Structure formats: C-alpha cells, structure tokens
C-alpha cells in the first residue's frame, strides 16, 4: 500500500481512501536534517537565561561599551587569550582594547578561567549572547520538540555558507533563526538575507521557515526585501516590545500547528 504525507499536515493518506492516519511521531533536528543528507555539530550554551536577559536589557538601553565589543571581533577565532594581552598588545590583526577588564567587571562577566577569555566567551560577548537569548525565549514560548544552538553543517557540497544560529522543530516543521545584534547598511543586510535564502534552498529544503532577528531599528524596506527572498525579517521593535514579540511567537505557532 502506498501512502503520502500532504505537507504541512502530520497525517498519512492513501490515494484510494478518504480517511487519514494521524502521525504521532515527532522528528528531532538531527533526524530532519538527515533526510537532506546533512550532518552537523552544535554549540554549547555559555550563560544561563537570567544573564542573557541582563545583557539584552543593557544592550537595548545603551548601557554597553560597543567600542570594546567591536574590538573583540578581531579575536573571535582565537582559541584562548589573556585579558591583559588584549589590553596591551597592539598589532594590525589584534588591536589593543583598553579598559577590557573594567568592562568585563561592569557587566559581571565571569570567565571560565580568571584572566583568560576563551573563544566561546569572545563569541558570546560579540553577539552570541543574543543567540542564547533567543534560544531561551523560543524554548519557553514555543516549547519546540527539539532545538539546537549554533548549528555548523558539515556537508558543504552545495554551499559554503553553513552556519546557522538557531534551529528548531515544532509540529514536525523546521525553523531557522539567524540572530544579529545589528545590521549596518543595505549591503550587509542583503548579504545576510542572501545567505539565509541560499541555505534554505540548497541545504534545508524549501519547506524550511527562515527568520532573521535583528536588533537594528525597524525598516519596512528591509522587511520587504527579506520577504521577496522567502525570509521573514524581525527588527528590534519586534523583539523588544512585549506585544510584538508575542505576535512573533504566535506567527511561529500558527505555522507549526497541524
């Protein structure tokens, strides 16, 4: 007997029969991506939810030293670096970041090893905190059947753009959220949208639901550009405003429901 699944419904149908069989099984992210011959690794959480909330509040209220955060981006690929050397060393590749120790103290950032910043901690400070913030919010508000943070796709035959900030499944439907603390300029935005659209088409399948969540201010032209590429764009107001964030979560729930 031949059956088929009429996407996006979680039911089995037999062509010669009008009755449907409800699908109770729920896929994991790994099972879903394996259908596209995709394997991956994932990141570990760096901080708990309360600290992510704390950094989010400081960031949106302008109580962060953005100059120091931008300076740390030069060190994102460094496995481990002493804070003292970051404050004093000065090369073109690794610029001096004065006041780093004071900044870390001001945001109550406890390093895994005192006096040293690990790569994961630098990634967290330069934007990973927002990925973790969204991870906790999705887990609490959507209660997905599975969720992964920092997915690095190992199969790259079809695309070299293979990192995904947040991937989860709800209602056996795949969702991807790319998290940006800010998008500066049309060029960078278009690059971000193109990456999200290309990964969706080449790696995840056209049925994937892709969002970009940014802490840049609202811009209807950017939202329209994203929609034209099959991507949903959520701006700072969609994340910061409680009622608009609830609408964002309800949009996901509506897509996910059987």
Entry keywords:
alpha+beta; two-stranded antiparallel ribbon; 2 domains; single chain; 258 residues; 43% helix; Trna Endonuclease, Chain: A, domain 1
What would you say this structure looks like, in words?
It is a single chain. The chain is α+β, with helices and mostly antiparallel strands and about 260 residues long. It folds into two domains: about 25-45 and about 125-255, Trna Endonuclease, Chain: A, domain 1, CATH 3.40.1350.10; about 50-125. Helix content is about 45%, strand content about 20%. It is built from ten helices and ten strands. It has helices at about 30-35, 50-60, 65-70, 85-90, 100-105, 120-140, 185-205, 220-230, 235-240, 240-255; strands at about 10-15, 20, 40, 80, 115-120, 145-155, 165-170, 175-180, 210-215, 230-235. The strands form three sheets. The protein has a six-stranded mixed β-sheet with strand order 3-6-7-8-9-10, with helices on both faces. The protein has a two-stranded antiparallel ribbon with strand order 1-2. Helix 2 packs across helix 6 (about 120-140). The chain is elongated, with a radius of gyration of 20 Å. The relative contact order is 0.12.
